[in-house]
Amino acid sequence: MKTQLLCLAPQIARVASLGVVLAYTLPAHSADTPDYRYTQYERVVTVDDSGRAVRRVTLSLVLSSDAALQRFSQYAVSYDADLQTLTIDKAQTVHANGENVAANLKDAVFDQPTPTTAVAPMFSSEHLRLVVFPAVRRGDTVQLSYTLTDRETMLPGKFDEIAYFPPTQEYDNVQETLDTPIGMPARIDAKGMQSVSDTVQGTRHVQVYRYRTPASGPTHEQADAVSPLDTGPYFVATNFTDYAQLGQAYEQRARPQMRASEPIRKLAEQITQNVTDRRQQAMLIYDWVSRNIRYLAVWVGSGPVVPHSADQVLSNGYGDCKDHDALFIALLSAKGIRADSILVNLGNSYRLPSVPAVAGFNHAITWLPEFGVFADTTSGFSPFGTLTFASSDKPALDTVTGQILHTPPQNEANSMSSSDYTIQIGNTGNADIHGTFVMNGQAAFTPRLALSRYKADRIGYELLEKIGLTGSLRVAALSSDEIDQPLRLDLIGTVNNMALMPGPAALAIPVMPGYSSIKAFADYVLAQAGRPLDGPCVGTAVHEHYKVTLPAGAQIIAIPPEVDSRNEEIVYTASYRQNGQSVEIDRNLQRNFRTNVCSGAMLKQWYATALEISTDLKRQILYR
Prior knowledge:
Layout (H helix, E strand, L loop, with lengths): L17 H4 L14 E12 L5 E11 L2 H7 L1 E7 L3 E11 L5 E3 L6 E5 L12 E7 L8 E10 L9 E5 L9 E8 L5 E3 L4 E8 L2 E8 L16 H4 L2 E5 L4 H12 L7 H10 L6 H15 L1 E2 L14 H7 L1 E2 L1 H14 L5 E5 L18 E6 L4 E3 L19 E4 L5 E3 L8 E11 L5 E11 L3 H9 L2 H11 L4 E9 L7 E9 L9 E4 L9 H11 L6 E2 L4 E9 L6 E3 L4 E4 L3 E10 L2 E10 L5 E2 L1 H6 L1 H11 L2 E4 L1
Parallel strand pairs: 1-10, 15-16, 22-28
Antiparallel strand pairs: 1-2, 2-8, 3-7, 4-5, 4-8, 6-7, 9-14, 10-13, 11-14, 12-13, 17-18, 17-20, 18-19, 20-21, 22-23, 23-25, 24-25, 26-34, 27-33, 28-32, 29-34, 30-31, 31-32
C-alpha cells in the first residue's frame, strides 16, 4: 500500500501508520513462507470531549527473510509535527532463542520530515520518526510500542481515525479499540473486521474490533492496485454525523479566505476585459491562476485545512491546492460566477468509507455548477474542464451543498493521443524516422509536464530509450504554450537496425517512441487478467499511423490482413495498404470505459481482445 501525502491531508499517513512501512512490498522468499508477519498489532484510541485523541500502539513483527531485514530493521512511524506529539515507549529485538535486546531510545531514534520534492503537490508538516532495532537477524521478532497524542484537532471538536490492513500482508492478531465519551456520537466503519465488544464503562463508551488474515493466507502481491480503503480490511471512526457535516466544517473555515477584495476584483476585470461570455470568463480566470500561481512543496499557514486568504495567495504568487482553490473562487466571485470547493482523493482510492472521514480526501479542486465543470488550477497543464487521471472517477464532496458528486472517468471524450510516423528504411537496415504526435485532454498532461522540466534533447533520448531502440531522436518542433489547445510534438531521428537488409526477411513494426501506445494496453491486460485486486486502468483513445518505405531494391511479398475486433468496452481496428515501396498502417484503439477501475474479472473478459491486438502488433511485412 503506497500512501499519498498531498496538500489537503498531511495526516493521511499517520492515521494509518502501517502505510509508511508497507509502501513497497518485496516478493516472498518462498512460495509458502511470507517475508514477514505481524503477530500482534493493537491500537487503543482514547478521545476526550474536545475531540483530541491519544493513540497507544503495540506491534510485533516476525522477519523471515533477508528482504524483510532490509525493510524492517528500522521502522518508520509518521506523525503531524504541528498537531501531534509522538513518544516511542519501547523498542526491542527478540531473537529466535527468546533473548531480548532493547533499542537505545536516545541514540537509535531519528526524526526527519517526510521526503518530498520541489515539484510534489504536497503541503505537509508530516514527519517520520525512525526507530532502529539492534542486532536483527533472520527469524527475529521486532517489537515496538509508541504513543501519539493530539495537541489540537484538525477540525474543531472532531476526531477522525483510520487504519487499514492490506490483504496482501499477514496478520495473526489485529485489535482496534475506540474509547470515547459516552455523550459523543462515534460512527465506525470496520470493513472486513469483527466486532468483539461494545460496552459502557462509567462515562466511557468502549468498542473493540479484531481482524486476522484468513486461513487461506494473504492475497498475492499486485504491482498496481487500488487502496485498502477501497477493499478493506480497514477501521474508520469519527464523530462527524455525515459527509455534509464534514464539508460544512471545511467550508466554514475556508470560505472567509475567499473574499473578493478590491485588488481581486480589479484583477478579475483585467483578466476578462472585453469578454462577456461567462464560460469564457471562467476559462480565462482558470488559465491565469494555472499559469501565474506556483504550486509548491511546502506546508505553511495556520492549519492543514485552512487556505491562506485569496489576497495573500495573490501577493505570494504561490500556494497549495486549498490556496489555488481560494484564489480561483474569489476571482470567479468577482465576476458573479458561483464556484464550490470540492474535496477528492488524488491517490489510488476510488471509494469512500460509509462513515465520513477527512482521511478519505487529500486534495481540493473547484466545481462550477453553472457550466457543469470540475477544475483544478494546480495541475498547470490541463485545459479548463479537464482533470488529471489521478482526480478522475473519484467521489467528490461539495463543501457548499454537502453532496457527494463524482468526477468523470478517463475515456475518449477527454483523453486522446494520435501519432503519425514516416519510416524510411535504408539499404543498411537503419531507418530515418519522422514522428508527429497530437495529444489532447488528459493525454497531454504527462508530455506537457515533461516538456516543462526537461530540455528537448533529453525528451527525445528518454523516449527512445524507454522502448529499447537505439539511434538518435530529437524534438524538431512543439506547440505547448496554450493548454486549451492540443499539444503537437514533432520528432526526427534515426533507428538502428530496424530491418534486415538485403532480404529475404520480415519486418515487424516496432512500438515507436510516444506517450501512449496500443501495445501498452494489450500487455497490461495479458499480464493482469484474473488478478485478485482491482486496479486503476486508463481509457485514452489511441490512433497510430505508420508509413513504412523500403529501399528501391526490395520487393514487398505480403502484408498483414485487416483486423476489426469489438466488444462492449473495446474497439480495435487495423488496416494495411501497399502503395509501391510503401506500406501504410492505421491502428485504432477505443476504450469506452465507464470507470477508471478495472477488476481482474473485467480484464479476463478482455483477454481474447488483448491477445488479438498483441498478435496483430507482431504481424510482419514480408519482402525480398
